[in-house]
Write a structure and sequence with these properties.
Number of helices: 3
Radius of gyration: 17 Å
Number of domains: 1
Distance between the termini: 44 Å
Helix content: under 10%
Largest sheet: 16 strands, mixed
């Protein structure tokens, strides 16, 4: 069923969120880092700026915590572009392994996903009550952890299959490396590696650009709906480095 533009705006908090490459052949585990990226948020074919988003993360040897706070103005804000996403979990041989993913959208009940890796099960909940559940396997991600997990496959030669878990559903997806691309962003001109995550039925279509200069951090995320409507997050300020240190990049 096609997703219309207004429906996409309402659903974005829980959507963002052949041969396949085995996980054992991917890059090394996600490197330790901490910092934040402030994004300018644009929407529509003309790319009008509708707000800002702040992404913060802390990745240690065996644990991670991610947060995205998106605030929009005007009609975009009225249609649901005011929310916070949080993902927490472990870091292991397959990279990130989420324990929980939460979508806190203003004026709506809390959506969350809770991962039980020992039982290979994920529980999708609304206000703490389970609405549905599904099976998960190594390498599966939530919408926010996918941004950082993508770096493990950025230099792969083939796509990888995985489940992407939102606050409401489980998407069978394909994460494909699309190669290098020089990108002009508010934060500056960066060399990037582009990734694309797509799900069956067109229910998930996300492009992720990873900065070569910043250990493959996600510096642009673009979500496209079935009608061609685009939500585009472009890095305007980057503060990143190992825990306890930071390197700052921002627009002049």
């Amino acid at each position: 069923m096609n997703m219309k533009r207004r429906d996409m705006l309402r659903a974005l908090p829980v959507l963002i969120g052949g041969a396949f490459l085995p996980f054992g052949r991917a890059m090394a585990a996600v490197p330790a880092s901490a910092g934040s990226i402030r994004f300018d948020v644009h929407y529509g074919a003309q790319g009008f700026k509708v707000g800002e988003a702040l992404h913060e993360w802390k990745i240690e040897r065996d644990r991670y915590a991610l947060r995205l706070n998106l605030a929009a103005s005007g009609l975009a804000g009225l249609f649901g572009l005011q929310y916070e996403q949080r993902s927490e979990g472990g870091v292991g041989p397959e990279g990130m392994r989420p324990d929980s993913f939460v979508v806190d959208q203003r004026g709506r009940k809390l959506d969350s996903a809770h991962f039980d890796w020992a039982a290979a099960r994920v529980s999708l909940r609304r206000d703490g009550k389970e609405r549905r559940h599904g099976t998960i396997g190594p390498g599966d991600q939530d919408l926010l952890s996918l941004w950082h997990q993508a770096r493990r496959f950025a230099r792969a030669s083939q796509p990888v299959a995985l489940n992407v878990i939102t606050g409401k559903s489980i998407k069978q997806a394909r994460l494909a490396p699309l190669g290098p691309e020089k990108l002009k962003l508010p934060a500056g001109e960066l060399d990037t590696l582009k990734m694309r995550a797509t799900a069956e039925g067109g229910e998930l279509d996300i492009d992720i650009w990873l900065s070569v200069q910043h250990e493959l951090l996600p510096v642009r995320i673009r979500i496209t709906d079935d009608d061609g409507g685009v939500l585009d997050q472009r890095a305007a300020m980057i503060e990143a480095g190992p825990p306890g240190a930071s390197a700052n990049t921002e627009k002049s």
